[in-house]
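Thread: "does anyone have the structure for this chain?"

Original post by V.I.:
We have the sequence but no experimental structure in hand. Need at least a predicted one for the grant figures.
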Amino acid sequence: MPGSRWDEDAVTTAFQAIGTNVIPACLKFIATREERPELLRDFLRKILPLDRDQPGDLWAAGSFGLDAFGPMAEGAIPDLIEMAGNAPPGNAEVAFHILGRILDRLPEGAYRKEVLQLCIGLTDGRLPNRDGRGRWAARTMLHFFPEDAKGAGVLDRYPELAEALNNALQAITNIAQSLKVASK
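Reply from O.Q.:
Generated one for you, tokens below.
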């Protein structure tokens, strides 16, 4: 995960060695700040420099774990959708992030309706837009459902995302132009 202080390849390999039975524990790490399940505590301390007082470590461990399984973590999507809509702010943001990471590797359309309903509800005010959830939902929509995001007026409601999107498109255009010039 970008900005992580852990060796992503080593952590991914370690979680894959445990197997998919660890997925419920990963969801628990993301959903709560409770003590790590005993089964994984010692293992996690061997592969990750976990800090008992840093809930971000639990969230990151859960994210790494789910991300390590990619499409095999598809069964976690309903729980992640629930967390994205109802969990405390930090947990919800992590849920949106890892939901995106899993969706990126699933066949086109998998869970589209469920995720889109949550995102549209959060961005148009039908669902309570607490603690920045609408912004996270808008980012998810722009990434996975750009046409739906445009039709739902997401960029009108979140102009800072429109500006970031325009800046990214400009950067891509500049890179493409410089590659074109360099290839001549």
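V.I.: this helps a lot. The radius of gyration is 18 Å.
O.Q.: and Residues 141 and 149 are 6 Å apart (CA to CA).
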